[in-house]
């Protein structure tokens, strides 16, 4: 019998997306209208961030954060090597030298113990990435940043709905960045948000967000005409994206609840292999809740990981690899430098495999995954 293919990811649609999109067609489609304001208010209410600005992408939000830093050539920004290009690129684009640090083997997040050695008199910011929606050790990171008087910009692209010690990711650093890309739990195809937690940045962020103008004040009825007052970019998405996004945000709790349930099922099904030491999976720290963005398995060798991907694919289960370390990439070598040992960043990505995870995914996928991996791992030991 031919089994249907299990895709790696699939977007949850509540049905309200098309209702809001139809309604958006009857309104002015430009940025900053009814749906954009509702999304920003929803995010402000649910995260308690001082101000939230919708953007075209998380990349776009990170770039706004970089402009807010007022970087000069030679200034340095610390980022983990195991991340998406945008985490580093946004700051390179605005003149910073990127200083890469290693990751922790349990969460694949920035290793907070590596940060202090990477700090120099030119360090301006630390950019922790909450990989898989699993929180970084924000207590340690904020402590280091405060002691050295540097800023923290959370790359919470994958962390919408996760919490660190009861605080939403993206609201702990001075600034936070979300992604609503199609690959994320909550999506509008391409989208993002800048969370401004340090109130000093709100006024300028609103100006940079809208082409360097005072249009936000004009929209709020505070001035009669808006003016060009600073550099800026065109960050606000259209009302069509915002209408789609609002429907998703209103279902965010349900979407993440379903993902967390499936994540827990994977954990339970695969626990015999984990207990035997044949496999490891990413695990959130005790005082954190996570949004189950990724179920990531770590195999003992790259060969085992590759074999697992081939076997699962042959049985109709799609999986995915993830980032290669940026400090070794051509741009990373040109635009940054590594600080300290990078052993985890250099070895773990080749042993990492992401399993399919999406609301509505049939739970028998976990049984099939377990059977395939159990067979493969036990046979490899006896071979
Ligand atoms: C950690 C991280 N940062 C930034 C981004 C960029 O997000 P966007 O595609 O919304 O620009 C991504 C996208 O996958 C990501 O995973």
Structural account:
With 383 residues, this protein is of the alpha/beta class. It has helices at residues 16-24, 34-47, 58-68, 85-93, 115-118, 138-148, 202-209, 215-219, 239-250, 252-275, 302-314, 330-335, 343-347, 364-382; strands at 51-55, 76-80, 97-101, 123-126, 151-155, 163-164, 167-168, 175-179, 192-196, 280-281, 288-289, 295-298, 336-338, 352-355. The longest helix is centred in the C-terminal third of the chain and has 24 residues, at 252-275. The two termini are 29 Å apart. The protein binds pyridoxal-5'-phosphate (PLP). Pyridoxal-5'-phosphate is lined by residues 57-59, 83-84, 86-87, 129, 155, 157-158, 179, 181, 183, 192.
Distance between the termini: 29 Å
Order of helices and strands: HHEHEHEHEHEEEEEHHHHEEEHHEHEH
Poorly predicted residue ranges: none
For this structure, the CATH topology of the largest domain is Aspartate Aminotransferase, domain 2
Tally of domains: 2
**Which range does the strand content fall in?**
5-15%
Quick structural summary:
The protein has 14 helices and 14 strands.
Top keywords for this entry?
single chain, 383 residues, alpha/beta, Aspartate Aminotransferase, domain 2, Aspartate Aminotransferase, domain 1, 2 domains, 8-stranded mixed beta sheet, 3-stranded antiparallel beta sheet, 14 helices, 14 strands, binds pyridoxal-5'-phosphate
Please give the structural blueprint:
Blueprint: H1 16-24, H2 34-47, E1 51-55, H3 58-68, E2 76-80, H4 85-93, E3 97-101, H5 115-118, E4 123-126, H6 138-148, E5 151-155, E6 163-164, E7 167-168, E8 175-179, E9 192-196, H7 202-209, H8 215-219, H9 239-250, H10 252-275, E10 280-281, E11 288-289, E12 295-298, H11 302-314, H12 330-335, E13 336-338, H13 343-347, E14 352-355, H14 364-382
Parallel strand pairs: 2-3, 2-4, 3-13, 4-5, 5-8
Antiparallel strand pairs: 1-9, 6-7, 6-11, 8-9, 10-12, 12-14
The chain binds pyridoxal-5'-phosphate.
Pyridoxal-5'-phosphate (PLP) binds at residues 57-59, 83-84, 86-87, 129, 155, 157-158, 179, 181, 183, 192.
């Amino acid at each position: 019998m031919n089994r249907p293919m299990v895709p790696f990811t699939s977007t949850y649609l509540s049905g309200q997306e098309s209702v809001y999109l139809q309604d958006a067609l009857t309104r002015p489609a430009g940025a900053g209208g009814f749906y954009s304001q509702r999304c920003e208010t929803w995010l402000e209410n649910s995260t308690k961030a001082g101000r939230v600005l919708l953007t075209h992408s998380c990349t776009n939000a990170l770039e706004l954060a970089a402009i807010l830093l007022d970087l000069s050539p030679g200034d340095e920004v610390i980022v983990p090597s195991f991340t998406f290009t945008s985490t580093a690129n946004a700051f390179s684009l605005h003149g910073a030298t990127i200083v890469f640090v290693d990751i922790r083997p349990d969460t694949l997040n920035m290793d907070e113990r590596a940060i202090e050695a990477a700090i120099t008199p030119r360090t301006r910011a630390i950019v922790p990435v909450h990989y898989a929606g699993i929180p970084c050790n924000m207590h340690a990171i904020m402590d280091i940043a405060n002691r050295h008087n540097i800023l923290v910009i959370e790359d919470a692209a994958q962390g919408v709905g996760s919490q660190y010690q009861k605080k939403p990711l993206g609201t702990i650093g001075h600034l936070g960045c979300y992604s609503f890309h199609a690959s994320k739990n909550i999506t509008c195809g391409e989208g993002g948000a800048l969370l401004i937690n340090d109130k000093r940045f709100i006024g300028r962020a609103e100006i940079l967000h809208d082409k360097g103008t005072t249009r936000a004040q004009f929209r709020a009825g505070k001035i009669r005409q808006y003016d060009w007052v600073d550099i800026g970019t065109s960050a606000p998405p259209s009302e069509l994206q915002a209408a789609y996004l609002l429907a998703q945000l209103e279902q965010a709790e349900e979407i993440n609840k379903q993902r967390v349930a499936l994540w827990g099922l994977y954990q339970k099904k695969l626990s015999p292999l984990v207990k035997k030491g044949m496999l490891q999976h990413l695990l959130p720290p005790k005082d954190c809740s996570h949004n189950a963005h990724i179920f990531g398995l770590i195999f003992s060798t790259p060969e085992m990981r590759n074999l697992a991907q081939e076997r699962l694919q042959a049985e109709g289960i799609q999986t995915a690899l993830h980032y290669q370390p940026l400090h070794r990439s051509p741009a990373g070598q040109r635009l940054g430098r590594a600080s300290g040992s990078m052993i985890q960043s250099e070895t773990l990505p080749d042993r990492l495999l992401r399993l399919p995870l999406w609301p509505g995914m049939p739970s028998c996928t976990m049984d099939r995954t377990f059977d395939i991996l159990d067979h493969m791992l036990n046979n490899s030991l006896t071979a």
